[in-house]
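Field reference: sequence -> structure
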Amino acid sequence: MKSKVYLLIAAAGIVAASSCKKLDTTSPGNKSINSLNAKADTDVYVVGEAAPQNWPGGYAAYWKNGVRTALTDTTSGLVGSASAAGIAIHDTDVYITGMTFTSGKTTAVYWRNGQKTVLADNASVGGNIAISSCGCDVYIPGEVRVSDYDLRPVYWKNGVQHMLPGSPGFQLTASSIAIHGGNVYVAGYAKKNSADYYGVYWKNDTLHYLTDPSSSDFSIASGIDVKGNDVYVSGYSHFFRIGRPDGTGIATYWKNGTPVVLNGATPSINALNLPSAIAINNGNDVYVTGSIAPADPTLFQVDAAYWVNNVITHFPPIDNNTERTATAIAFAGHDVYISGTTTPHPSGNPYAGYWKNGNTFVRLPGRVGIGSGIAVVTHPHH
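Structure field:
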């Protein structure tokens, strides 16, 4: 019997990380890696960027039940030489997207079972992968740089680039992708004047703006999922710049273009409220996860949370000095897994891991890392 596979729904993620030294479990907010093996019939994959020494720096890698596999050279010593962004699994094939960085050039790539395929030079990938229901087609969102000031949104189908239509006066980025009913849905954003952002999504090459591109209601779209005839997009709205160059915004998702402001995430002048992923489970519950402003608005830190049908859940605290981000969602039966990162402050290194059902953070082995994507596979009992 084939394994049942639960694909990740991710966003415009960054990268993940760690290495294989003994885990420090002294923090009350971290759970021992032994908990990864609590269920023998469940495999948990996390992707990202591993670093052997202090951050920054690293190589693309993934962990299966806490065991790291390097995807690129681990000995080059190059700072930020490669990163992995998203993961999806079909049958026994493991697909991972990522980027390599050489001599100032970014190259978009993906790996199938560890074998690398170059998608394009001067290009980057979004935060997830989508696989058609037949398992025969693999879709990856991203962008290609045509010139210094000209970025084009694309997706690759089985490694072949497809250019998405743009909009005059805007640069557009493709962040996340979903396949449903033979249709291709891509979420991203349009940028104007190097400062104004507007969330968008495409359905089969038709571009839809989530906020009016002639207004000052700035927004960004980060993740996308489709259930039945409904299109769900995560991101933030009412983006404005106060106090910091990167500004702030209100955590939001859109259902068929209508915004739903997420409860419990108050805008802060010091931090973005940025949902990074959205996913709809088989019970039609809407899950959103991402980063939120801290409870104390004077802090320049971010925390992590998730929402189910717009009810917020804060992850268990670690301590008052640890920043947390959440990046991607995967389902396995009634269980929900969310990848992420914890970073002790003021000068600690980040650690990759995940939360299961909102419980204590499961920190993956290693000195350093940023968790970007997650997938879970269950093997039926015989």
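Note: The radius of gyration is 19 Å.
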